[in-house]
Write a structure and sequence with these properties.
Blueprint (H helix, E strand, L loop, with lengths): L3 E12 L6 E12 L3 E5 L6 H8 L7 E10 L7 E2 L5 H7 L4 E4 L3 H4 L6 H12 L5 H14 L16 H13 L5 E5 L7 H18 L2 E6 L2 H7 L2 E6 L2 E7 H6 L4 H7 L61 E2 L13
Parallel strand pairs: 3-8, 3-9, 6-7, 7-8
Antiparallel strand pairs: 1-2, 1-4, 4-5, 9-10, 10-11
Helix pairs in contact: 4-5, 5-6, 6-7
């Protein structure tokens, strides 16, 4: 089994304090292994981006982490909790160990600075001993790595296409050779052809450089093609996690099945799109019991009163996956 590089343990993230606090991430536990692409999918508002910002401690106010651990396993050295790092250690951790590609490359790049300045600033902040010439060469290398000609170094962001801007952000994320790259819906504003080009390039870079990826998206069809494992979030919780191929062939949670029924089949006969009725839950007033039961076509008597634990189901291949659904009782439910 591959070694873990990041362990998220019972993470709780909220916005606000006291009676008006909103729990956006609830008791989430995930493990990212070395060299793996872990997909994180769910509707808007399910807690995906909040989880990413909590892991990297980039939560905007009034976001606050209220519980849990984020344990990073460096290649050399002992594991440590990212949530316990001081400001100096946290600055070293970001970009050097874990980088993030934000949603919307045009908003992430500074419009008044050339691409060369933004790339070399990242390198200079973490490797101040490098000469200006070495930093510039490293920046050109990063652009070539993501398929952009080095002569575009002096371009401004508005002079690049959307796909090129997104690849610049990927190059910036890889500039310090981090062990983990978190991608928060990086292809949302791109057409489907450009989406596939960037994702294929990302997979090729992963195989070449050996970093791990957490890929966040609401488009489950992308993850089925490119991820090794997929975790599904709903109402701030993980409701199912499985190898990508197993989840596509046999989704156990009705919410996962609804997401899969919301996009056309990748191959085989044409099928009707079903979608999911209703709307995601209001995180300030969550339903009792299973949070999905008001929208679930398979809900039965215990669902409105019993919160299903996340654990391995008693099904073939159940040891490689987890699900939180009373239709598939867990053989080893996680203790909360």
């Amino acid at each position: 089994m591959r070694q873990p590089v990041l362990e998220i343990r019972n993470l709780d993230v909220g916005y606000g304090l006291g009676d008006v606090a909103l729990r956006a991430v609830r008791d989430v536990s995930l493990t990212l292994h070395r060299g793996e692409v872990l997909g994180l999918a769910g509707e808007s508002g399910s807690g995906k981006s909040t989880l990413a910002y909590g892991v990297t401690r980039l939560l905007p106010p009034p976001g606050v982490i209220t519980g849990g651990e984020v344990v990073y396993h460096p290649e050399n050295g002992s594991p440590y909790d990212v949530l316990a790092l001081g400001d100096r250690e946290l600055r070293a951790f970001r970009w050097a160990e874990t980088a993030i590609v934000f949603q919307g490359a045009m908003n992430s790049l500074n419009p008044v600075h050339r691409i060369s300045v933004q790339l070399t600033d990242v390198i200079a902040a973490h490797q101040p001993d490098l000469s200006a010439r070495a930093r510039a060469e490293r920046a050109r290398e990063m652009l070539r790595l993501v398929g952009i000609a080095a002569d575009r170094m002096d371009a401004y962001p508005h002079q690049l296409s959307g796909g090129m801007r997104q690849r610049v952000m990927i190059g910036m994320a890889l500039a310090l050779q981090p062990q983990i790259v978190i991608m928060d819906e990086p292809t949302t504003a791109l057409d489907v052809v450009m989406q596939r080009q960037i994702l294929r390039q990302l997979v090729a870079l992963r195989e070449r450089l050996g970093f791990s990826v957490i890929f966040i998206t609401h488009d489950l069809s992308l993850l089925v093609e490119f991820a090794d494992r997929i975790a599904i979030m709903y109402g701030g919780r993980i409701v199912e996690e499985a190898p990508a191929s197993a989840l596509y062939r046999d989704a156990l949670h009705p919410y996962t099945a609804g997401l899969l029924g919301s996009f056309p089949a990748l191959r085989g006969p044409r099928r009707d799109l079903t979608g999911i009725p209703g709307s995601p839950p209001d995180l300030t007033s969550m339903p009792t019991g299973c949070s999905f039961h008001p929208r679930c076509p398979k809900a039965f008597e215990p669902c409105p009163v019993t919160i299903p634990p996340l654990g391995s189901p008693d099904t073939p291949g159940g040891s490689t996956r987890t699900v939180a659904c009373l239709l598939h009782p867990a053989t080893n439910p996680e203790v909360r």
